Amino acid sequence: MRRARIIYNPTSGRELFRKNLPEVLEKLEIAGYETSCHATTCEGDARVAAAHAVERGFDIIIAAGGDGTLNEVVAGMSPYEKRPKLGIVPMGTTNDFARAIRVPRKIDEAIDIIVKGDTIPVDVGLINDDRYFINIAAGGRITELTYEVPSKMKTILGQLAYYLKGIEMIPSIKATTMRIEYDDEVFEGEAMMFLCGLTNSVGGFEKIAPDASINDGLFTMMILKKCNIADFIRIASLALRGEHLNDPNLIYKKASVVKVTSTIDEEEIHINLDGEYGGDAPVTFTNLKRHIDVFVPLEDIRDLDRVE
Ligand SMILES: Nc1ncnc2c1ncn2[C@@H]1O[C@H](COP(=O)(O)OP(=O)(O)OP(=O)(O)O)[C@@H](O)[C@H]1O
Predict the structure, then answer these.
(1) Is 81 in the same domain as 162?
(2) Is ligand 1 within 6 A of the CB of residue 92?
(3) Ligand 1 atom nearest residue 95's Cα
(4) Residues 36 and 81 placed together within one structural domain of the fold
(5) 201 lines ligand 1 (CB under 6 A)
(6) Which residues form the DAGKc domain (predicted)?
(7) ipTM of the complex
C-alpha cells in the first residue's frame, strides 16, 4: 500500500480542514493510500515535518494550508534527491500557487485531483542555497505589506485585508536603490519593487505575469523603476488588466538566475518569499527546473500555454 503524509496548518482556513479530515482520510484509503497527518504547531514546523516525511519514505505529501504552509513544505522536501509527489489542498487567503495550477478551493475536489493521480513537474526557486519558493520572490517597500496584515484579519476579511493594507501603505511607498543581475543583463538604480515569479498568479491576480510558465526553468522577472505615486497607481491598475508589459517604467524579462544586492550600506532590502518574510539581500535566485511533481487537474491545464 502507498503511504501519504498530510501536513496541515490548523490556523489557516477557519478549522475547515480538521473538520473534513474523516472524509479526506476515507477518500485516500479507498484510493489505496495509508495516510497519517501532522498538524503544524508554529512557524517553520511544516518544513521540518516535510523533511521527516521524505526521510520516512512517504510516497506523497499533501500540504493543506495557505501559500506560507506550501512554501514550508516545498522547502522541507526540496533538498532531497528523491522527492515524494506533492498534493495541495488550498486553505489560505490567496492560494497563488493552487490558483496557477487550477487546484480548486473545495477540499473534496482538491483531494479528488490527488486520487486521480495526474502530476506534472514544476519549477522551484532556490534562494542562495538554503531557502526556497514556489510562487514568487519579491522586494521593495510595497511587497512588505503582507507581513503587516494580521492573520486574524486575513481569516475574517480574506483578500480584502490585503487591499486595505495596500491602500493604507500607498502614501509611504518609496523607492529602494538596488542592483539586479538577471542572466546577462543588469539593472542598477532606484526601484519601487521587483518580482521574480514562477507562476502567473501574483497576489491573486492572474494578469500581472500573464505568460509565466510553471515548468520552463525560467523566472518571470519584473522591475518597477522609481516613479511618482500617480504613476505607481496607474501602472498597478494597468497590471491588473495585463496592459502594463510595455510601460517604460517597467522591465519585464525571463531569466534563470537573478541576483539582487543593496548598493547603499544602510539600506536593507527585505525579501518576501511566497508572501512571508524570507531574509535580506544580497540574494541569488536560481530556478530549479521541474523540481517537484505536483498533482494537477490535467484536463484543465493541458491547454494552457503556461505549461510545457
Ligand atoms: N499552529 C500554528 N500557529 C500559528 N502559526 C502557524 C501554525 N502553523 C503554521 N503557522 C504559520 O502560519 C503561516 C501562514 O500560514 P498559511 O500560509 O498556511 O495560512 P494563511 O496565513 O491563512 O494563508 P495565506 O498565506 O494565503 O494568507 C505559515 O507560514 C506558518 O509559519
Answers:
(1) no
(2) yes
(3) 26
(4) yes
(5) no
(6) 1-131
(7) 0.95
Q: What's the sign of the alpha-carbon dihedral 61, 74, 148, 45?
A: positive
pLDDT 10s digit of each residue in the chain, 308 long? 899 999 999 998 767 899 999 999 999 999 999 999 999 999 999 999 999 999 999 999 999 999 999 999 999 999 999 999 999 999 988 898 999 999 999 999 999 999 999 999 999 999 999 999 999 999 987 776 666 666 665 556 556 666 666 667 777 778 889 999 999 999 999 999 899 999 988 777 788 888 889 999 999 999 999 988 888 888 888 888 888 888 899 999 999 999 999 888 777 898 988 888 889 999 999 999 999 999 999 988 876 656 66
5: β partners = 36, 61
Q: Does the residue 126 lie in any domain?
A: no
DSSP-assigned states of every residue in 41-61: -STTHHHHHHHHHHHTT-SEE
Neighbours of 239 (CB within 10 A): 21
Helices (H), 83-159: 96-100, 107-116, 151-157
Radius of gyration of the chain (CA): 19
Residues 151 and 108 in one domain: no
Q: Which of 144, 190, 206, 276 is catalytic?
A: 276
The pTM score is 0.90
Ligand 1 lined by 199 (C-beta under 6 Å): no
Tell me how crowded residue 262 is: count the other CB atoms within 10 A of its CB. Answer: 17
Q: Is residue 304 part of a domain?
A: no
In this structure, the answer to whether residues 112 and 206 fall within a common structural domain is no
Q: Render 22-44 in DSSP notation, one character per residue.
A: HHHHHHHHHTTEEEEEEE--STT
